[in-house]
Amino acid sequence: MFDFLLTKEQVELREEVRDFTKSIDRQYLLDMDAEKIQFPKEILVEAAKRNLLGLRFPKEYGGRGLGWVEECIAVEEVATLGIPPACLYSLVSIVGECLNEFGTEEQKRKYLKPIIEGKLFCAEALTEPRGGSDFFGATTIAKKSGDNYILQGQKRFIVGAEGADFFMAYAKTNPDGPLRESLSCFLVDRNEDVMVKHIYGLMGARGGGTGRVLFRNTKVPSENLVGKENDGGKIFYRMMVPERLTSAAGALGEARASLEIATRYSTRRKAFGMPIKNFQAVSFKIAESVTELDAARALVYATAKAADSEIPHGTKRRMVSESKKFATEMSWNVVNQAMQVLGGIGYTNVFPVERALRDCRLIMIWTGTNEIMNLIIQHEFYKEMGPEAKSLGRNTEFDAPEAFNEEEKIYE
Q: How far apart are CA 162 and CA 77, in angstroms?
């Protein structure tokens, strides 16, 4: 962490979160990975006791009224426990964003305050079997019936589904309308009409309560509609910020933990009569890893500052997409390098690096694949440059000897 860029209060918050992560029993984490624990609510309850959930939200709902930099500091530290705890921790921030920005006062009191207090647990029901990245291709339907909506459909790969008391779910309310005006967002209480099935066989990120959620004539009161009917697209675009920025911050913590293990190992492990850190083949991997980690951290925290600023939302979308893409790919690279430094023992469960490798593979896929991140990045940057892609400063195109040779500049 770049301590010199942090305020005294931010450093103190980081120490609070570190104290929290140190309080989690190692066996609890091992049982999560072994799927002996399906949903680690105890971790969220403990975080709530320490007033560490929903840091960005108003104090009247139990938060601390802090900003995105503080949120990223906390998520990075929680991610040293692994990706599942970090993701569940972030769900309060993600679902909470929806409630805080678009929810009614009644919805905030009924749902936002209890999830920050650790009295209710939430999940975001977004991905469907027929489409992951194709969000607007959702096939879950919500039909108005008196004072209720009736939901039919299913969602899958829903982290936290096992323990969720309610779901933030998107469903089609205007199937024949324009795609971006076809969806609505609902708060769906868990009841007998909501079936949750556990998904077995995950490569990593185990113990986070990932499940399939089926809505079978599920009755949702009209007062549980978030925002206006058919405004789900507007909410979704706003949700890109917390979804992707928390993923990026989590990637920092996961990578840092593995890098620390590899660095310590390289100072202890000897070969040919000397510590292996003395071999450039090893120490250069550490150098490459710490450089990638620092670069990703700089981007993520710059994005955190941007997220709290008044810059155009399109620029925020670009920056959070860059952060998610760059940080998650960095994490994959750094954890791989850590395993290489450890050698054969890194491929065993003697060290947690093998678990980190399984976990961090997922974060390049969820909340929009990194290919989708590229799509958004280029789209927003072209918009910023304008239709003619004008220079943002000095037009260096003409700083070439033959710059005005129009015969060679053929565009059509």
A: 24
